[in-house]
Amino acid sequence: MSIDWSKYFKYDENSPTCLLWIGSTSYRIKNGITPAGSLKFKKSGERRYAHVQLGDNVTLVHRIIWEMFNGEIPKGMIIDHKDGDTWNNKLENLRCIKQELNPRNARMRKDNTSGSTGVGWHTARKKNGVRTYAYASIEQDGKAVSSHFNVDKYGLLPAYKLAWLWRQEKLQELNLSGAGYTERHGKGV
Description:
Number of strands: 9
Number of helices: 3
Distance between the termini: 38 Å
Strand content: 25-35%
Shape: elongated
């Protein structure tokens, strides 16, 4: 069931959430003036998505704004913040994409230990000892593809660089066929 958000909210880029209340019956809210929604933080201090409570329902602000201008979000689709800022709910910063494309606009994870998204180290036990490899992986046609570079053969840093270069070439190749990796993908936090 689709809600007519324009009965309750007005889009306003000067509001911290980009929404103002217009249909509230609360004495504490000045319709057309009071910002709608809350900008929240996680316990870690990281930003959470802005959300608004309407009756008993809590809805993400970016979803409301998208639906106000574009109608109901199709099943299997999500609303992505192009710049990665979960508090930037300006309409031009929002896009409707398939869920599986969302990580292609994500920065490097905070728990990344290699310094590059999709590149890391792998140790394998062989009959004659342990071998270490630099590897790179990326998703292609719904499956992970990867390449490994032997540290004994290339050296530690050259193997890592080869893995990184392999992944960059794959990214370019995939984007030429419409994969949708953005400039933000895998960049530092």
